[in-house]
Amino acid sequence: MNIIACDESFSGQILAIFNEAILNSTALYDYKPRTPETMTTWFANKRKGNYPVIGAVADSGELMGFASYGGFRNFPAYKYTVEHSVYVAVPHRGKGIGKLLLGRMIEEAGKQDYHLLVGAIDAQNVVSIALHKAVGFEYAGTIKQAGFKFGRWLNLVFYQKILNTPVNPTDG
Question: Helix H segments across the chain?
Fold first, then answer.
C-alpha cells in the first residue's frame, strides 16, 4: 500500500466510496448518489483552494480510502481553519488506513500553515470518533438534530485538533 496524492484519474473510485457512504451510512448527510460530473467540480474546487486529496492505494491500483480537506466557513477570519474528511472503502475498514490518512491530513495542514482541523461526525459514528481521539482530536461540541436521514434525526458532533502553525498569523 502507498499513500499518494490523488488526481482525477481516481474520480471513479472516489465516487464509488462516496456513494456507498451516502446510500448506506450517515457519514455523509446526502440522500442521492453523486454523479461523475460532481467529481469534476469537486476536483476543481480542491485545485482552486490548493487542498490535498490523499489516497491509500493498494499495489493493484485499487483505492482503499481517501482523505481531503477544504475551507471551514467562507469568512476571512477562518482562513487558518479547514474541515477534513476521511473515507475508507468497506473491504478495507479496520486495517488502520483511516489513521494513516488522517495523520497525513494533519501533516499537510501543518505544511500549509493551517491552525485548526475540524471533523464533523455523525454522533453515532463511534468508529470515526475513536479514530479522531486516537490522533489527538478533542470533542468541541454537538449540534442536536442537525440532519434527518433514514427516518431519524441525526446529531452532529465536532472534533478539533489545534496545530502549532502558523508561526506568525495575520489579520486580513
Answer: 11-24, 36-49, 97-111, 126-134
